[in-house]
């Protein structure tokens, strides 16, 4: 083997190792992100669960009290109306909790899909090179790994085109056809 | 008493819609996706359908199209209540036969106004 080919093999091997190191680092960072997202979601779900229980208790009592109200009790009706307004405001905020939960689900899915692709890329790096003295074989493996990573990024881009939106500008808007 | 079918895969959202409508004197039945919504609509007489768009099994637009094919649902109002707010989605809703499009999170007073209007 000539000096030039030796250098070529060495460079290709280094580049392949660097790619593996980058993929491993990214994968471990995403693993941490996945854990943090899951933890945030658990905390949010617990808080939402408590709020929903309190809301349900108040709402059920109000609805049954309203139904039982005899005609002509305007004062009580006004009183219930005030409570109802407060509950209506709670409805708006509880919906936001629910939408944030869905957003976290979407982010978790994206992280999971990217990690799957990174793991696929890393699995390619464990396959033995048929002829390690040939730089083109190292390059071929690096290219296959990169294809995998790029496919993962494309998946994220596609998912981003169909997101669960909490578009403040349009929230609450109404169009009647 | 008017009966309203609320279709959404989120239990919280169904509960919110049901509370607001029941507090105004409507009867609410619930379904957790389009397929179940279609099933409920064919087994019960419904005066209004409020459906989410993105759901497993059957999405909101498919539910609208399926309901419009049924004789009993040719003129029953159907509202989409969804996070989707793009003009192209709204156009699809209109073409499918939806009566209106509301973007989440909804304001309870506005929802009641719209419901009263389409049920008139």
Describe this structure in words.
- The complex is a heterodimer of chains A (177) and B (120).
- Helices cover 82% and strands 2% of the residues of chain A.
- Chain A is an all-alpha fold and 177 residues long.
- Chain A has one domain.
- In chain A, helix 1 packs antiparallel against helix 2.
- The N and C termini of chain A lie far apart (76 Å).
- The model of chain A has no long low-confidence stretch (mean pLDDT 85).
- Chain B has 120 residues and is of the alpha/beta class.
- Chain B has a single domain, classed as Response regulator (Rossmann fold), CATH 3.40.50.2300.
- In chain B, 45% of the residues lie in helices and 19% in strands.
- Chain B has five helices and five strands; from the N terminus they run βαβαβαβαβα.
- Chain B has a five-stranded parallel β-sheet with strand order 2-1-3-4-5, sandwiched between helices.
- Chain B is globular.
- Chains A and B meet through helix 1, helix 2 and strand 1 of A and helix 1, helix 4, strand 5 and helix 5 of B.
- Strand 1 of chain A pairs antiparallel with strand 5 of chain B, so a sheet runs across the interface.
């Amino acid at each position: 083997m000539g000096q030039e080919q030796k250098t070529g093999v060495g460079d290709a091997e280094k580049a392949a190792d660097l790619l593996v190191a980058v993929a491993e680092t990214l994968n471990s960072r995403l693993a941490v992100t996945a854990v943090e997202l899951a933890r945030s979601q658990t905390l949010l779900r617990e808080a939402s669960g408590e709020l929903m229980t309190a809301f349900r208790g108040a709402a059920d009592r109000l609805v049954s009290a309203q139904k039982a109200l005899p005609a002509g009790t305007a004062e009580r009706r006004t009183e219930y109306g005030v409570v109802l307004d407060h509950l209506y405001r709670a409805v708006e905020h509880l919906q936001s909790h629910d939408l944030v939960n869905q957003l976290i689900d979407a982010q978790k899915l994206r992280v999971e899909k990217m990690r799957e692709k990174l793991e696929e890329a890393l699995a390619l790096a464990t396959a033995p090179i048929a002829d390690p003295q040939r730089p083109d074989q190292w390059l071929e493996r690096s290219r296959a790994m990169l294809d995998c990573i790029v496919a993962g990024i494309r998946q994220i881009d596609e998912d981003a085109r169909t997101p669960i939106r909490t578009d403040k500008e349009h929230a609450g808007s109404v169009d009647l056809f | 008493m008017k009966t309203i079918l609320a279709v959404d895969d989120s239990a919280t959202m169904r509960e919110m819609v049901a509370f607001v409508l029941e507090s105004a004197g409507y009867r609410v039945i619930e379904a957790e996706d389009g397929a179940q919504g279609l099933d409920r609509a064919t087994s019960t007489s419904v005066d209004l359908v409020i459906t989410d768009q993105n759901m497993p099994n059957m999405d909101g637009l498919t539910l609208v199209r399926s309901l419009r094919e049924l004789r009993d649902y040719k003129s029953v109002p159907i509202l989409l209540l969804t996070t989707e707010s793009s003009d192209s989605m709204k156009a699809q809703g209109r073409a499918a036969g939806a009566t209106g499009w509301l973007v989440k999170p909804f304001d309870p007073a506005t929802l009641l106004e719209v419901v009263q209007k389409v049920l008139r």
